[in-house]
Amino acid sequence: MAIPDGILRKPGPLTEDEKEIMRKHCEIGYNMLIRIPFLRDAAEIVLATRNFLTARLPSGLKGDDIPLGARISQLPIPSMP
Asked: Sign (positive/negative) of CA torsion 12, 16, 17, 22?
C-alpha cells in the first residue's frame, strides 16, 4: 500500500534507491498493524519478515528465534502444473 506503483510494477531491475524503498515495506506494514490491537501479533510477523528480505537483521533474530509466521511467509510457492 505504501510502495509506489512505479516501483512495484517496474519491469526491469530496481535502482539502489528503489531497493531501499522496498526494504521499508515491512516496517511500514508493522507501523500500520501495531495500532490495531487484534493484529499486534501479525505486526511482529510482518516486521520479522524483513530478516529474510535484507542482509541486515535489524532485530538480531535468526533461525528459530524468527517468528514461525515470518518463516512460513517466506517459503517459496510451488508453481502449478
From this structure: positive
